[in-house]
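Subject: design request, 277 residues
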């Protein structure tokens, strides 16, 4: 198998329909996705705080991919199982490993990496991406900063099976660094735009995914030079967050702290775009 690099990369944002993008693009006849979402190659290299859980996520993703294959296939493809096992063997998260992930893709298909943490890369990380992926195109789905943060907060609490009991506890989890970090558009958008022009970096408003999924697909196809298709799952809701009610003071805190992010998006993209995020 010949190692490959991805042709298309979705860099975020977290809680902005990236799971939908992975599922829908993976259902296309011309796009190949890895057996697990979120490869974490670049953030593992440049965001040390991500390394432990990225490795845990890799192990879980590979285990799920193998279990899914054994369950759904009448005849187990031992070559595929060996491929999965090889991806879990050290060294991992280096360039050879990254290219090995895409080695099973037919040459006629474009390869896609969907890892929302890539949007959070520091300057030197984005510079490395620009040098390592000289021909790739990038998609950045922009969601309203406050609504994105609320969704991430709900997801974090659901994963911990935890509901804060008082205002102090609520504000503590609301103000965790990761909540604001994943949606710091003021820092990330200029960083990526400085290295990629609109021929290689596509911004999509999150609201269009639910209101006009076919329109989103048409934009992606035009951007990535893909043929017109309407793949399975265009209208599907993927990984819907548990609708945990949030206290008013949590919403007010997020509105206050993330107000500058909203203002930045309006100034950067205009109201026609931001009304759809």
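Subject: RE: design request

Done. Sequence follows.
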């Amino acid at each position: 198998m010949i190692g490959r690099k991805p042709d298309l990369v979705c860099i975020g944002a977290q809680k902005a329909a990236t799971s939908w993008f992975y599922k829908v693009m993976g259902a296309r006849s011309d796009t190949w996705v890895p057996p697990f979402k979120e490869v974490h190659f670049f953030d593992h290299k440049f965001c040390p705080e991500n390394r432990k859980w990225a490795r845990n996520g890799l192990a879980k993703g590979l285990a799920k991919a193998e279990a899914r294959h054994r369950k759904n296939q009448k005849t187990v493809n031992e070559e595929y199982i060996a491929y999965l096992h090889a991806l879990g063997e050290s060294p991992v998260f280096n360039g050879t490993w990254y290219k090995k992930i895409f080695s099973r893709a037919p040459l006629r298909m474009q390869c896609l990496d969907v890892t929302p943490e890539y949007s959070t890369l520091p300057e030197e990380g984005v510079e490395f991406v620009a040098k390592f992926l000289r021909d790739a195109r990038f998609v950045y789905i922009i969601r309203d900063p406050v609504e994105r943060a609320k969704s991430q907060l709900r997801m974090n609490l659901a994963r911990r099976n935890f509901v804060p009991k008082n205002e102090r506890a609520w504000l503590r989890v609301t103000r965790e660094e990761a909540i604001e970090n994943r949606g710091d558009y003021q820092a990330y958008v200029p960083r990526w735009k400085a290295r990629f022009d609109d021929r290689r970096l596509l911004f999509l408003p999150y609201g269009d995914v639910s209101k006009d999924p076919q329109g989103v697909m048409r934009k992606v196809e035009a951007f990535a030079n893909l043929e017109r298709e309407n793949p399975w799952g265009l209208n599907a809701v993927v990984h819907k967050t548990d609708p945990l009610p949030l206290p008013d003071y949590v919403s007010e805190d997020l509105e206050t702290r993330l107000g500058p992010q909203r203002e930045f998006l309006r100034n950067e993209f205009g109201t026609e775009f931001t009304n759809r995020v």
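Residues 91 and 97 are 7 Å apart (CA to CA).
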